[in-house]
Amino acid sequence: MSTEMEHNNKTAFFMGIKHGVPIAMGYFAVAFTLGIVAKKAGVTALQSMIVSATNSASAGEYVGFTLIGVNAAYLELAVMTLVANARYILLSCALSQKFSDKMRTIHRFLLGWFITDEIFGISVSVPGKLNPFYTYGAAAISIPAWSIGTYLGVVMGNLLPENVVSALSVGLYGMFIAIIIPPAKKDKIIACLVVISMLVSYLSSRLPAVAKVSSGTRIILITVIISSVAAILFPVKDDKKEAA
Amino acid sequence: MTHNIYIYMFIMAAVTYTIRVLPLTLIRREITNTFIRSFLYYVPYVTLAAMTFPAMMDATASPAAGAIAFVFAIILAWRGASLFAVSVMACLMVFIVELMPFIH
Questions:
Q1: Is residue B15 part of a domain?
Q2: In chain A, which residues have their Cβ closer than 8 Å to the Cβ of B55?
Q3: CB–CB of A184/B45 below 8 Å?
Q4: Residue ranges per domain, chain A?
Q5: Model pTM score
Q6: Cystine design at A24: which of A66, A101, A145, A222 (Cβ 3.0–4.6 Å)?
Q7: Domain count, chain B
Q8: Considering the domain boundaries, does residue B17 fall inside one?
Q9: Smallest Cβ distance to A112: which of B20, B27, B40?
Q10: How far apart are the C-alpha atoms of B90 and B67, rounded to whole Å?
C-alpha cells in the first residue's frame, strides 16, 4: 500500500476516504452534541455549521460556543481558542516530519485546515512519507460529517425530549475522555496530571473565592500552571515526541 | 456590550487555523527547547481533563448521571474502546441512569 499510495494521488485520496468513514461516524454523533451547546449559546444552525467547517476542533469549538454564550470579550475568546487548541501546535510539528521534500508548499497551507486529533492520527501513521491526498480524502468525508452534525444538533436539539438532550450533552466529554485516557494508561505522569487537573478544576469551581473567576480563565490558569510545573519536573525525552 | 457573532466566528477560525498552519509552514525543524516541548506535550491532557471534570456532572439534568457516565467512560477508554464508542456509551449511560426513579 505504501508505495502506490505515496505516488498515486487518486489511490491515496480514496484510501483516505475509506479510512475516514469511522472518523466521520464518530464526528457526526459528537458534532450533534456540540450543536446542542451552540444552540444554548444562541448561535444559529448555519453559523455553527460554518464554525465547524472552518475550525474542525471539538474542544476549541466547545470553548468558543460557551464563551459566545456568556458574551465574553474578543480577547478572552482568542486566548481560550488558543489554549484549547494548543495541542495542534505539537501535532503540526510532528506531521511536518512526514512530508516529502518534493511536496509543494501549497499543501502545507491546505493540510493546516485538517489537523484534527483523528485525521492527524491516521495521517501520521501511514508508512513512508505522507501523500497529502490521503489526508484530503479523510477530510473530505469527516469534515462535512462534522459540520452537518453540528447543524442538525442546533436544528433538532430542541425537538428532542429533555432526557435525550441531557444524555447527548455528555457526548463531547466522552470524546475528551477517549482522547486523554489511552495516553494516561501508557504514561504514569500523564495519568497523574489528568487526576490532578480534574481535582484542581473541581476545587476551583467549588471554592467560593476562586469560583467567581470565569470558567474560561480558570482553565487557562490551571493549564498554564500545571503544564509548566510538569514540564519542569518531568521534561519529556525525545522518544515521546510523537506520542501526542 | 454585545459582541458581533461574525467577529467571534472569525476570531475562532483565524486562531485555530493559525495554530495549525504556522508549525507546518514555518517550523521546518524540530523544536529543541526541552521546556517548551514538554510544556506543549502536557497542555492537551491538562486542558481536556480540567474541561471535562466537573463540567460533565454539571451538564446533565442529574449530576449523579453525569458522574456515573464519567466513570463509565474512563473504564471504556481504559479498555481501549474507540472515540465513537466511548462517546455514545457515555450518552447511553446518562439516559439509562436518568430513567431510574431514585436518581435525582
A1: yes
A2: 173, 215
A3: yes
A4: 2-172, 187-244
A5: 0.71
A6: A145
A7: 1
A8: yes
A9: B20
A10: 10
Q: What is the DSSP string of A92-123?
A: HHHHHTT--TTS-HHHHHHHGGG--HHHHHHH
Residues of B in contact with A74 (CB under 8 A): 3, 7-8, 11
Q: Shortest CA distance to B47 belongs to which of A79, A154, A226?
A: A226
ipTM score of complex: 0.84
Assigned domain for B104 exists = no
Closest chain A residue to the Cα of B25, Cα to Cα: A108
Distance to chain A for B102, nearest Cα, Å: 15
- Which range marks the domain in which residue B84 is found? 5-99
The length of chain B is 104
